[in-house]
Structure formats: structure tokens, C-alpha cells
């Protein structure tokens, strides 16, 4: 048998509570939820199969001031989406759900159209629909082997015979780990015991004329919905009480398991039961008729793993769906569109299966799954950090020197300093929707880089080496920029076939035909998979190696950088001796390394690529050499502020698979006239010919104690006109600033708009970028001024 693509699936429909909601804190996961609900609304008419879809709406309850802030924060991230969502008053909440105790209720987030669906009926309807359009379904069909063929296809061994497929999709639920093991993967998925309680008929519920909306009591950490004439509610226990089915990780899922449930434990959830009884008093007199306990598959960060997998050509995953059936329809559409067109229909990198790697060990996975389950209803602050399972085996050569001095962030398994402590600072992780303890110290670090010299650990960058006879030919096909000559560096972009930005990469040719590629930490294997796929399908005679874990990176930036480094090397570090965007092998403090004159702060700077084992030696030598010049550390928060002041775009914010490079203002890096037919070239030529409908604008804002961070709604005359992509406070110019996508007719300098932050609309204006000139530009202008008569 031959199939174009084969989905290997598993299910446990009868256990799931079947909740459906438009809401999701993730920007594009809202689209997944939206597509699911729209499919479920039409599924019965299309297939003739009833699905038991109830849509009474849902309300997320805020019972503390910080929860109200959270709801306002989510609202500004939703206005520019089609998701129906409103912030509602206690009076409206009581009207919609008259059985609530309103003593603690301050506000609610209301999504009309939310509700619940019968998972079994949904599954049958989806299967019926699939058959209508030609799909073949084999059930049961135990997969006993997966064998790749030379041409990128797969032979799938089943009791029904061997099926050859162009690609396979692992969609096997809590069997996902075992299916992955057939080809050498250890997918970080683990089943969690989730319980929900079902009551007998409640007279007050039976007396209602309309179905109650689903409520989610965020402080109580449970959901509650109507079930016939009774109630159903499910809690999320804290880390110390929840249960992992870790034996399945060790020994596999028991043979024949499919419709069984776990033994329930009401004592484990009594704390939440009592909170539910306080919020919905009719529960106190309700008879419990069932306590259901079954498996839900979790990943370390709670998000699913969706898309093609690196290191296994044409192997895709759709696993780890802790959110349940609300993802089914939208993810099915997302994957189908990607398979058909060759590119993702929208950016969903937070669900990329390649965000995990060899550092994702079983102990880490278990610790994070416990944390994520308990965090289901924890306040979702900006710049959120979660600390279970850290650090992983991925620590840079200077981690031990820095860990006690900084607030660390987590980036693809790495620990990286966000900001550094000084005497008198309020230390530690203090999340807030407004300016918090890091605001002052980050300003201090920006001043350091602008006036003296600072050092930052950039080790989490993804790093690849591409070499071989066809190396330049491959890269010319992949990237829209021309390839740098020997000893030079440039910024290049990989585009999708329709001309959207798949990745931004720094490329250096450091030996003839040998290129060093640097990408962001969060897109390491995401980018490597794209490169490897093109290399295989070319085919190209190249060797591609991932050296991310082998090489440490230190960034040194500021006006005194050259003076510090010159103390430690014989290499000429002068402006004429070591030019901007040049790369050289140098010996620094007795250590051989590679230096690139570049800095993402926009100031005079170098990036030093150092063997991990020598990183601490080089760092300590630099810090000692710079003592008399005021050298100090700085972190990623300061770098973000500085890059925004210079007008630098960031991948994943200003550019991603939702944007094209022309609207993002990346024209300088896109060489439409280069000879090579790079991926996306024809599409970009067409986009350019038709003209743009929106463009990235640079805006300043009048705020108080809150700053933009990206994805906020932009308003004009009471209408939504755009969204921010990233934002920060400019310490150099003493104002908030952001990038925002706006219609082209609103992009002129001086255009006034409003940006919504925490429910308030702040005045904003489009300004000429950048606010602060980069060091190379300032130097060039100074030289020009000196040479003028």
C-alpha cells in the first residue's frame, strides 16, 4: 500500500471533559482554537454525525487585583484577533451565572461561543468526514516498525501489512513516546493523572432556563461546567499533590490499555473541591456520583509538539495536547495546510517539536510536567520564568561565574543572564504587569554599554557550520542575501515559498567554502531542519554540523571595547585594522578563538566565539583588563532595549512566518537582483509589484509605570488599526518605544495613534527610526564631518 501521508493515531475519548474555548494566552494558538470551534460548529451538517457541541460561553473569574490586570493584559493581546472576547463586570457575570457567590468576584473574561463537546462523538464525526473525502482508517493497527527509505519515504509495519508513505505524522497521544522510540527519538511527553468530579442532579441547575457558561476560577485552579442537570468540575492540583504516570515513561503503556481509567483519589483534590463549593454554593448539597481519573499527555511546557521533526526526514508530530480536544480541529488544519503547501500557514514556533533537544532528560521532563500542571492557572505575567528542572546540562562556560550575580532566563535549555544585581537592588524574580525590580538595574546596564564597556553571555545562539563543494550554492538557494566573501559577515534571511520570513541568520565565511551560521537560541533546530531538508532534496554535496554546544560566545560592547581587547591580543583592533562586519581568527589572553566585529546593541562591539572549555579563562581576562575602564556585565533585557533604540528588527517579533521582509523593512538584506533563484524570490517580486498593505512603523509612547512588550493592540479613532511587535523603555531617550504594524496610509512620521496597555490607551506617534544612531553610523558621520571643508 502507498499513502501520500499517514497519520498514526491513538485516542482515549471517553475520559476527556471536552472543554472548548477561543481563549489562549498565545498569540497564534488563538487561531488554532478559533479554527477548531468553527469546524465543530459545521461538522454535524457536513458529515451527518451529531457531535454534542454545547456553546454556552465561558468566563474566567478574576478575584484579586492582579488577576484583573491579567485579564486586561490578555484583552490587549486579543483585540486585533477575530477571537470574540470581552472583559465583563461582576453584574454581568452574575447575570450569566446566577449560582455564583459574588463576594470575591472582581471581573471576568467572557468568551461567547465557548463550551464543551462530546469527545467520542467528535472523533466519530471526524472519522466519518475523513472517509467521505477518501481517507482510509485501520483500527486497531499496532505499529511495530518504522523504516525510512533512501528517497525520504517511510515503510510502516502494521498487522494490515507494510504501508509506504511520503511522510508520517505521529499523533498517538500517550503512545507518542513509544512510536518515537522506534526511530531513536525520546519525545518528552508524559501522562498526568487528571481528575474531574460529576454530581447528580442539582435542583437549582435543573431550574435554569439556559445552560450555564463554563467558569474557570483562576485562584481556585479549577473549571466547572453544567453536565445535564448537574455540574462537572475539574481541578489542577499543586506540584506536591499531582500524580505522574512515570512508569509509562520507563516501561511503556500497558499492552491493551485504551479505555481504562485510573483509580480516583478525592482526598488529593479536596482543597479545590472546597474552593469550588465556596464559589458555587449549590455544590455543598450536591451528591457526587462519579470521580473520574484518566491520563492527559503533557510536555515540559504544556504546549504540544506540532510539525516536522529535525533529523528524521518527513517525520511529523502532533503530540502532547494537554489542552485536549480544542486543539484537534485547528492543529489538523495547520498540519494539512503545511503538508500541502510546503510551509506553515502561520507562525507557531512555540509548538515546534524541535524546541527540545538532547538536554531534555527524563528528570527534567518530569519536573517540568509537574510544574506546568500546577501552573495551569497561575498568573501569566510578561517575561515569565519557571524554575523546575533547571539548570539542565546546557550551561555555558561562564555560568558558574555568573549564576549568583544575575536573574537568569531560560533559553532552549540554556541559562542566560537577563539582568545583574548590585548592592541595594531588590534581587530575584519579581514578576509584574508594571515596571518591577529589574527596571532600574537594566537602565544602569544600558548606560554602561553606551558610555563604557559591557560583557554579555551569548552562548545560547544556535551555531552551524556548512561546508563542502556545494556550500555556497546551497546557501544562495536558502538565503535572500548574497553570501559574504571570505572573512566577512552579513545578516541573511531564509524565506518560505510565499515570501515570508522563516529565519534570520548571521553568516560568516571564515574559510574558503566554509560558513559559520548563527541563529537565535529558540530557533536552533527549527532552522537546522529547514537547511537539512533543502540540502537533502537538492541534492547538494555539503556537510552540515551543529556546533551549538561546543562553542561559547561572549559579546563585548561599548565605546571602550577596543581598548580592553587590545590589551589582550596582538591583533590590530583599530577601526582600520578590524572593520565592521569582518571576522578574524585571533589569540586573546592566550586562547585561540574567532572574533566578529558586530554587536546587537548597535554599539562598538565584538562577538568572540570560544571553545567552551576556554570560555571562563577569556571572560576573566577581559574583566580584569577592563577594570580601570569601568567594565561590567549586562544581560538580555538591556540588549533588547538597546537594539530597539537602534531600530534593529528581531526575528520572532518584527519578522516571522506571518510577515514578509518588505513590510518588515528588511529591503537592504533582500537581493532580488541576485542571480540565484532563492526560495521565495518569485513570491517577493510579485508582492513588490502589487504593493504593500501594511508596514512596520517605529513609535514612541507617553506611558507611566508600564511599557509595551509586543502584541498590544494599536487604536485610532476607536478602531483597531494594528499591533505592536516588540517594545521596551528607551533609557537613552527616556521614553517608551515599540515597533508596530500599521496600514501603509498610517505609517507617515508624525502619525498619532494609541496603544492599549492594561486596559488604558496611551498616546503614541510614528517617528523616524532610529532614536539612537548605531556606532558605525556615528563614526561614519564623524569622519565625514571632519573631512568636510
UniProtKB/TrEMBL annotation:
Pathway: Amine and polyamine degradation; betaine degradation; sarcosine from betaine: step 2/2. Residues 341-394 form the FAD dependent oxidoreductase central domain. GO terms for biological process: choline metabolic process. It is an enzyme of class 1 (oxidoreductase). Residues 694-772 form the Aminomethyltransferase C-terminal domain. One of its GO terms (molecular function) is dimethylglycine dehydrogenase activity. Residues 21-338 form the FAD dependent oxidoreductase domain. The keyword Acetylation applies. Signal peptide: none annotated. It comes from the Eukaryota. Catalyzes the demethylation of N,N-dimethylglycine to sarcosine. Also has activity with sarcosine in vitro. Its cofactor is FAD. Its EC number is 1.5.8.4. It catalyses: (6S)-5,6,7,8-tetrahydrofolyl-(gamma-L-Glu)(n) + N,N-dimethylglycine + oxidized [electron-transfer flavoprotein] + H(+) = (6R)-5,10-methylenetetrahydrofolyl-(gamma-L-Glu)(n) + sarcosine + reduced [electron-transfer flavoprotein]. It is found in: Mitochondrion. Residues 403-674 form the GCVT N-terminal domain. The gene is DMGDH. Belongs to the GcvT family. GO terms for cellular component: mitochondrion. The keyword Flavoprotein applies. This is Dimethylglycine dehydrogenase, mitochondrial. Keywords: Acetylation, FAD, Flavoprotein, Mitochondrion, Oxidoreductase, Transit peptide.
Amino acid at each position: 500500500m502507498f499513502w501520500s501521508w499517514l497519520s498514526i493515531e491513538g485516542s482515549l475519548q471517553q475520559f476527556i471533559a471536552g472543554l472548548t474555548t477561543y481563549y489562549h494566552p498565545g498569540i497564534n494558538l488563538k487561531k488554532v482554537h478559533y479554527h477548531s470551534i468553527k469546524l465543530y460548529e459545521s461538522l454535524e451538517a457536513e458529515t451527518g454525525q451529531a457531535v454534542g457541541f454545547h456553546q454556552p460561553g465561558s468566563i474566567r473569574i478574576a478575584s484579586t487585583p492582579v488577576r484583573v490586570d491579567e485579564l486586561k493584559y490578555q484583552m490587549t493581546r486579543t483585540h486585533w484577533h477575530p477571537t470574540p472576547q470581552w472583559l465583563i463586570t461582576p453584574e454581568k457575570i452574575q447575570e450569566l451565572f446566577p449560582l455564583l457567590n459574588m463576594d470575591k468576584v472582581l471581573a471576568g473574561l467572557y468568551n461567547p461561543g465557548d463550551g464543551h463537546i462530546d469527545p467520542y462523538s467528535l472523533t466519530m464525526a471526524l472519522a466519518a468526514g475523513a472517509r467521505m473525502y477518501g481517507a482510509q482508517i485501520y483500527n486497531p493497527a499496532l505499529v511495530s516498525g518504522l523504516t525510512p527509505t533512501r528517497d525520504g519515504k517511510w515503510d510502516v509495519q502494521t498487522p494490515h501489512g507494510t504501508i509506504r508513505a511520503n511522510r508520517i505524522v505521529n499523533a498517538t497521544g500517550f503512545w507518542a513516546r513509544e512510536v518515537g522510540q522506534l526511530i531513536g527519538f525520546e519525545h518528552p511527553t508524559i501522562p498526568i493523572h487528571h481528575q474531574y468530579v460529576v454530581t447528580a442532579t442539582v435542583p437549582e441547575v435543573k431550574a435554569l432556563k439556559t445552560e450555564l457558561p463554563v467558569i474557570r476560577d483562576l485562584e481556585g485552579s479549577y473549571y466547572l461546567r453544567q453536565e445535564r442537570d448537574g455540574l462537572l468540575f475539574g481541578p489542577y492540583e499543586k506540584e506536591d499533590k499531582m500524580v505522574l504516570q512515570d512508569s509509562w515513561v520507563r516501561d511503556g503503556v500497558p499492552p491493551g490499555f485504551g479505555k481504562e481509567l485510573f483509580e480516583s483519589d478525592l482526598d488529593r483534590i479536596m482543597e479545590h473541591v472546597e474552593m469550588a463549593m465556596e464559589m458555587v454554593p449549590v455544590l455543598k448539597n450536591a451528591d457526587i456520583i462519579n470521580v473520574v481519573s484518566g491520563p492527559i499527555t503533557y510536555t515540559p511546557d504544556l504546549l504540544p509538539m506540532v510539525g516536522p521533526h529535525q533529523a528524521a526526514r518527513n517525520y511529523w508530530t502532533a503530540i502532547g495536547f494537554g489542552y485536549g480536544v480544542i486543539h484537534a480541529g485547528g492543529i489538523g488544519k495547520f498540519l494539512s495546510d503545511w503538508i500541502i503547501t510546503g510551509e506553515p500557514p502561520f507562525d507557531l514556533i512555540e509548538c515546534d517539536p524541535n524546541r527540545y533537544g538532547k538536554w531534555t532528560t527524563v528528570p527534567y521532563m518530569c519536573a517540568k510536567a509537574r510544574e506546568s500542571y500546577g501552573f495551569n492557572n497561575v498568573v501569566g505575567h510578561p517575561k515569565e520564568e519557571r524554575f523546575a528542572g533547571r539548570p539542565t546540562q546546557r550551561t555555558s562556560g561562564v555560568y558558574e561565574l555568573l549564576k549568583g550575580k544575575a536573574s537568569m532566563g531560560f533559553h532552549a535549555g540554556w541559562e542566560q543572564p537577563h539582568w545583574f544585581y548590585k548592592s541595594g537592588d531588590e534581587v530575584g524574580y519579581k514578576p509584574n504587569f508594571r515596571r518591577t525590580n529589574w527596571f532600574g538595574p537594566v537602565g544602569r546596564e544600558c548606560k554602561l554599554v553606551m558610555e563604557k564597556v559591557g560583557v554579555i553571555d551569548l552562548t545560547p545562539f544556535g551555531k552551524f557550520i556548512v561546508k563542502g563543494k556545494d556550500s555556497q550554492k546551497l546557501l544562495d538557494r536558502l538565503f535572500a542575501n548574497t553570501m559574504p566573501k571570505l572573512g566577512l559577515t552579513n545578516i541573511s534571511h531564509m524565506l518560505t515559498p510565499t515570501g515570508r520570513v522563516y529565519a534570520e541568520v548571521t553568516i560568516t565565511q571564515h574559510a574558503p567554502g566554509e560558513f559559520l551560521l548563527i541563529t537565535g537560541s529558540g530557533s536552533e533546530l527549527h532552522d537546522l531542519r529547514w537547511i537539512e531538508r533543502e540540502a537533502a532534496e537538492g541534492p547538494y554535496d555539503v556537510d552540515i554540523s551543529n556546533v551549538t554546544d561546543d562553542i561559547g560566545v561572549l559579546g563585548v560592547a561599548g565605546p571602550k571595547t577596543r581598548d580592553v581587547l587590545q590589551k589582550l591580543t596582538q591583533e590590530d583592533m583599530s577601526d582600520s585594522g578590524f572593520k565592521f562586519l569582518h571576522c578574524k581568527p585571533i589569540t586573546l589572553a592566550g586562547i585561540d578563538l574567532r572574533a566578529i566585529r558586530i554587536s546587537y546593541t548597535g554599539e562598538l562591539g565584538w562577538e568572540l566565539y570560544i571553545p567552551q572549555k576556554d570560555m571562563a579563562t577569556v571572560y576573566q581576562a577581559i574583566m580584569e583588563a577592563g577594570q580601570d575602564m569601568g567594565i561590567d556585565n549586562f544581560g538580555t533585557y538591556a540588549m533588547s532595549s538597546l537594539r530597539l533604540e537602534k531600530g534593529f528588527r528581531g526575528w520572532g517579533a518584527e519578522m516571522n512566518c506571518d510577515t514578509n521582509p518588505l513590510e518588515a523593512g528588511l529591503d537592504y538584506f533582500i537581493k532580488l537582483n541576485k542571480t540565484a533563484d532563492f526560495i521565495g524570490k518569485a513570491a517577493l517580486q510579485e508582492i513588490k509589484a502589487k504593493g504593500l498593505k501594511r508596514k512596520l512603523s517605529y513609535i514612541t509612547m507617553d506611558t507611566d509605570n508600564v511599557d509595551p512588550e509586543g502584541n498590544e493592540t494599536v487604536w485610532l479613532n476607536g478602531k483597531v488599526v494594528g499591533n505592536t511587535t516588540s517594545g521596551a523603555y528607551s533609557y537613552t531617550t527616556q521614553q517608551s518605544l515599540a515597533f508596530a504594524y500599521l496600514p501603509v496610509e498610517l505609517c507617515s512620521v508624525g502619525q498619532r495613534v494609541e496603544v492599549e496597555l492594561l486596559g488604558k490607551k496611551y498616546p503614541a506617534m510614528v517617528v523616524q527610526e532610529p532614536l539612537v544612531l548605531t556606532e558605525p553610523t556615528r563614526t561614519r558621520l564623524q569622519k565625514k564631518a571632519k573631512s568636510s571643508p
